[in-house]
Structures are given as structure tokens and as C-alpha cells.
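Deliverable D5.2: sample structural annotation.
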Amino acid sequence: TMRFGEDLSMECPENAGRIARIARRLALLARLLGLLLVPALAVQWALGANGGGLNLPVPVMEALHGQALTPLQRLGGFIALAPSALALAVALFALARICGEYARGALFSGAVLQGYRRLGWSLAATTVLHWLQPTLVALAVTLGLPPGQRLLVVGVSSDDLVLGLVTAVVFLLGAVMGVARDLQEDNAAIV
């Protein structure tokens, strides 16, 4: 088992094996989640109840007055959330690629740096689309309602702020990995 603060140098075969095992498992999990994300969202909108199952904004639930969503409203809600889910799926596949490189022992390869860039940009897209989700879902679900019941919802949650922070950290980590790769190349040229 790994202990907090333990040195995980790749020079030690035991550590390299441990990192490879963890990276393979995480890559598998990321790929699985990336493949299931959009289909799960489709199932949720096709079968989910109006209340907690779809996590609709409160003003939208109030505007529906307990009415069941029509198939068109369900399709609109799915379409409103699908871009964010797709961006997150791209982020998960980028993470899987990074972990695949780590499992091979290539901690500072060009593929890792490209993976961090792709991960950062896809998380940035996810963040922006997540900010737009309440607005898009409200428009999609209430557009067919009579005038006076249609809603435009705008909001930013703490989840959005955390997602933005994680995105910034990924970009920073990618830059640090680029510097580490340059140092590794310099050290290899000296030896």
C-alpha cells in the first residue's frame, strides 16, 4: 500500500510497478466512464422523473406545475446537456491516454504533454458549458409552455467555480510536466 508523502521514484522497480498498476486501473475506469457518460445521460432524460431524477432548476420545476415532461422537452433537455457531457468524455479519454503513458513508464513523453493539453482544454469547455447548463435546460424544457411560463435561468454554482479551479490546476500541471520533460532531455544529453 502507498503511504502519504512516500517517494515514488521510477528508479525503484517496486514503485514503477505500483505506478503502472494504478495508472492501468485509472485508465480503464476513465475509458469506461467516457464511453458510458453520454448514453447514461440519454437514459436519464428518457426515463427520469421530473423531480430529483433530472435535477431540473427549481424555477423550471415550479413552471411545470407537476406536469410530466413531453418527449420533445426530454429531447431538448438531453440536447442541452449533451455538449457538456461530450466535453467531459473527451477529458476522460485524455486522462486515460495520460494514464496509459504512465503505465508504460513514460512519465514525460510528448503524448503525456499532449494529453494534459487536451485534458485542460476539454475541462475548460466542460466548465463553460456547465455554466450555460441551467440556461439551456430551462429554455429547452419551457420553450413549449404558454407565454408567461417560459423561463430564462442564469446561475453559477460553487461546482462551476471548483471545476474552473481544477481546470487551472490541470493547465499548470501540464506546464510543469513540460519543464520536467525538458530537464529530463537535458539530463539524458549530458549522460
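Annotation notes: Residues 88 and 126 are 6 Å apart (CA to CA). The chain has a mean pLDDT of 85.
The annotation will be released with the project's public dataset once the embargo ends.
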